[in-house]
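Structure first, sequence second, as always.
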């Protein structure tokens, strides 16, 4: 275990991004918090990656993930999400945030113009109900 993990000083942008993102090919970096990929050209700083952290995650999430990765030395994402779960999340997010009917995911034109996995209103209703149950328990 790394005893420096709980040091008080704020990490630099380089330390933060090198810890929370894992490098991929073609200047792509994978966020270990949400598994999203971002492009950051080599030698061009860390602005795009830091911007992702501040826009997509709270400072508490960033700090706890940073400390967790330093402490345990993990190289796997803090949250590992299946592609199915990610697809369901994205459908729910789209439908809720745009105030669309659940049947929106069944429309031919919607399916034609999205890369999200095929699903139906019945399945989305089931997952939304499960999500509400989990939220109520907290």
């Amino acid at each position: 275990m790394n005893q420096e993990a709980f040091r008080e000083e704020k990490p630099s942008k380089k330390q933060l991004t090198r810890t929370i993102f894992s490098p991929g090919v073609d200047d792509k970096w994978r966020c270990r918090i949400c598994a999203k990929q971002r492009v950051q050209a080599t030698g061009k700083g860390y602005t795009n990656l830091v911007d992702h952290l501040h826009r997509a995650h709270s400072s508490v999430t960033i700090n706890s993930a940073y400390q967790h990765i330093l402490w345990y030395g993990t190289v796997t994402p803090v949250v590992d999400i299946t592609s199915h779960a990610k697809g369901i999340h994205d459908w729910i997010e789209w439908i809720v945030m745009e105030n669309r009917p659940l049947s929106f995911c069944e429309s031919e034109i919607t399916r034609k113009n999205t890369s999200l996995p095929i699903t139906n209103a019945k399945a989305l209703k089931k997952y939304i109900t499960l999500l509400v149950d989990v939220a109520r328990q907290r």
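Margin note: Helices lie at 13-20, 47-56, 59-72, 83-97, 108-112, 121-137.
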